[in-house]
Structures are given as C-alpha cells and as structure tokens.
Amino acid sequence: METGGGFLISQIKQIQARIFGELLREAGIEEFNGAQGRILYVLWDEDGVPVTALARRTGLAKTTLTSMLDRLEASGFLRREPDAADRRQTRVVLTPLARSMSDRYDAVSARMTAIFYEGFSPSEIAVFEGALRRILRNLQEREEGS
C-alpha cells in the first residue's frame, strides 16, 4: 500500500506556518514568530517548566530550543532559573510581558483552528486528532528508543 501521510503532514506544517505568521502580523503580534509562540503557548499553560520537559512538549530539539530561548530571553519574554529542588535542572519562567500577550495569541490560535477545521464535524476532528496522537506516540517511541 502506497501512502503519503508524512508528505501531507509536511506540506500542512509549511502552509500552516505561513498562514499562522500572517495571522500573527494581522493581530499586531510581531515580537515573536510562530515557533517561538509554541514555546510561550506551553508556558502559558504551565509556567516554570524544566527545559527538558519544554523540549519534549514542543517537539523541538534541545539545540533548537536553546537558541530560541536565548532570543525570547533577550526580548524580555522569559528567564531561565535554577530549579530550587534540583540545581541540575533549569526552569523556564514567563515575564509579565509574555503573560500580557496570552489573550491576543489565544485569539490568533482560535482563528487558525477555525481555518484548519473548516467543514469538519466534531466526530471527524476527534478521529483525526486521535490518529495524529497515535502517529506522534509512534514517533516519540522510536526517537526515545534510538
């Protein structure tokens, strides 16, 4: 059986990133890009996440994450602090500036979701996202096993 799921996912990711960047600009959010917004999104959900957990939750390689954290920190959106319980760990903490942008980013994210799922029923969305979660688990297990 010939399949093209990986190629389709790659195309979707590229087009979605361009549209999301456009939506961010339309909303007046020019302080960070979509990939950096993904980091902030995780932190808006749970502030003070260890760097290793942040890499896992964003799907970013640690080297990529580190350079993005450097830029976000230099822009005043976050700071890295040693973990009080385990000084080998570093936690990423939002600044008030980043917290103040959460609502605007959520509005852009809601617009993107509406575009993404236009014409889908709730049950179709549930099935689709369930399949994506299974693919993600498969890939994570493979990566961890390597």
Q: Could you characterize what this model shows?
A:
68% of the residues lie in helices and 8% in strands. The protein is mainly alpha-helical and 146 residues long. The protein has a domain at 32-100: Winged helix-like DNA-binding domain superfamily/Winged helix DNA-binding domain (Arc Repressor Mutant, subunit A). Strands 1-3-2 form a three-stranded antiparallel β-sheet. Helix 1 crosses helix 6. It is globular, with a radius of gyration of 17 Å. The two termini are 26 Å apart.
Which helices and strands occur, and which strands form pairs?
Layout: H1 5-26, H2 34-45, E1 49-50, H3 51-58, H4 62-74, E2 78-82, E3 90-94, H5 96-100, H6 102-116, H7 122-145
Antiparallel strand pairs: 1-3, 2-3
**Strand and helix order:** HHEHHEEHHH
Radius of gyration: 17 Å
For this structure, the CATH topology of the domain at 32-100 is Arc Repressor Mutant, subunit A
Low-confidence spans: none
Q: How do the strands line up in the largest sheet?
A: 1-3-2
Quote the distance from N terminus to C terminus. Answer: 26 Å
Helical amount: 55-70%
Structural class: mainly alpha
Described by strand count, sense and barrel closure, the largest sheet is:
3 strands, antiparallel
CATH architecture of the domain at 32-100: Orthogonal Bundle
CATH homologous superfamily of the domain at 32-100 - what is it? Winged helix-like DNA-binding domain superfamily/Winged helix DNA-binding domain
Q: Tell me the quaternary state.
A: single chain
Strand percentage: 5-15%
Overall pLDDT metric: 92
What's the CATH first level of the domain at 32-100? Answer: Mainly Alpha
